[in-house]
Design goal:
With 390 residues, the protein is α/β, with parallel strands linked by helices. It folds into two domains: 96 residues, no CATH class; 198 residues, Rossmann fold. The protein is built from nine helices and 16 strands. The strands form four sheets. Strands 7-6-5-8-9-10 form a six-stranded mixed β-sheet, sandwiched between helices. It has a four-stranded antiparallel β-sheet with strand order 4-11-1-15. A four-stranded antiparallel β-sheet has the order 3-2-12-16, with no helix packed on it. It is globular and about 155 Å long.
Length: 390
């Protein structure tokens, strides 16, 4: 009786085992069918899979991030034209004084009468003009110390002649120095302010005279002012204990454009006085050596900048000297050129200006007595080229 039931149970158990063993194959068949349903026909193109081309679903534009906003275009302010950046060869300006042996200005020269050399290379003159009675911007830089007071006070008093020659369009400042530099009058067109500044220098308080510091500081101030400027330096040329030394001052002079220095030394008059009063305790050999060195420095300051050096032997020469300075500053020839050497390397370029006759020979003149006169040409020794980083 149990055999049929057992057979029925065994048959059911075999069916269960058969179903369990067929599940992996069934799942594989179902996956294969789904994969075939996801495959595109060969003509659909697209990336190739192992069994044919694969459909790449299209991207929904709404699901993509918005593109970045366009960069705003920088515009110049209203009324401002468009500019382009370019580098020009710098123009060098060379003021030239042409005088007789006595210091009188020689007018009427033409552009063809001038030749300019930079480091020995001839340069082509770009512009040329004769400056006559032009307005000036100048600084009276005066030593005010007790070292040689009796000679300095005469030079200060006689500088009134220069101040009195000022015209309505001129600008002048007055600076004194001993241990420190003092601005007695800033740039002004009022003669009375200049006279008042000179009048302040009555009795010096110190014997020190820091010339190098005073000149360096004055050049630094003038470097910020546009146009041609002048320094009228009235001093013995002696320097006591400046922070700056002679070499630094020379370097500053080379690097400061458009500044002419006219120097009035009191050393010659002081040496003559010492020779006549050698029994006063001053050491004549030492004093003479110091003042000769000071004169040489004052001459160098003037020569490097196209100015003039004056060394009066007597006090009576001072009024004419200051009138001569005023005339020379106002009457010059202004030449410009673009250097053949266009490198902006910050080097110092030597300058030389010569005069020539129409036939190419040296230029000479005849005085009233028919004597041949060779003119003096006064121009700065050179200039410092700009550097690329400037």
């Amino acid at each position: 009786m149990l055999v049929p039931e057992f057979r029925k149970f065994a048959s059911s158990l075999a069916l269960v085992f058969a179903l369990l063993l067929g599940l992996p194959a069934l799942a594989q068949d179902q996956n294969s069918q789904q994969s075939q349903q996801q495959q595109a026909p060969p003509e659909a193109g697209g990336p190739q899979g192992d069994i044919g081309p694969i459909i790449v679903p299209k991207k929904n534009p709404e699901d993509q991030p918005p593109p970045p906003p366009p960069q705003p275009k920088v515009k110049n302010p209203d009324g401002m034209p468009e500019f382009s950046l370019h580098v020009d060869v710098p123009v060098v300006q060379v003021p030239v004084m042409v005088t007789t042996k006595d210091g009188q200005f020689i007018p009427g020269l033409k552009e063809d009468n001038f030749k300019i050399f930079e480091d020995g290379v001839p340069q082509k003159i770009s512009t040329f003009k004769q400056q006559s009675d032009a307005p000036i911007t100048a600084v009276l830089l005066v030593e005010f110390s007790a070292r040689n007071y009796y000679f300095m006070i005469d030079a200060i008093q006689d500088s009134y002649y220069f101040a009195n020659s000022l015209k309505k369009d001129d600008w002048i400042a007055v600076i004194s120095y001993d241990m420190k530099t003092r601005i007695l009058s800033d740039f002004t067109q009022n003669k009375q302010e200049v006279f008042g500044a000179l009048h302040q220098m009555q009795v010096p308080m110190f014997s020190e005279a820091n010339l190098f510091d005073a000149l360096y500081d004055t050049l630094d101030r003038l470097d910020r002012i546009e146009g041609r400027k002048y320094i009228i330096l009235i001093a013995s040329g002696i320097d006591t204990f400046s922070r700056m030394n002679y070499d630094k001052v020379l370097k500053k002079i080379k690097e400061t454009p458009n500044v002419g220095i006219f120097t009035v030394s009191t050393g010659a008059a002081f040496r003559i006085y010492m020779e006549a009063h050698s029994n006063m305790g001053y050491g004549p050999p030492i004093a003479e050596l110091n003042y000769l060195q000071a004169d040489n420095e004052m001459n160098t300051f003037a020569k490097m900048t196209g100015g003039r050096w004056y060394s009066p032997r007597f006090e009576g020469e001072l009024p004419e000297i200051f009138r001569d300075i005023a005339t020379n500053i106002r009457n010059q020839y202004i030449l410009t050129y673009k250097p053949v050497n266009s490198k902006q390397d910050g080097t110092f370029r030597k300058l030389k200006v010569e005069l020539q006759a129409p036939d190419g020979g040296p230029l000479t003149f005849k005085d009233q007595k028919g004597k041949t006169i060779k003119p003096n040409v006064i121009a700065r020794d050179g200039y410092t080229a700009k550097h690329e980083v400037e």
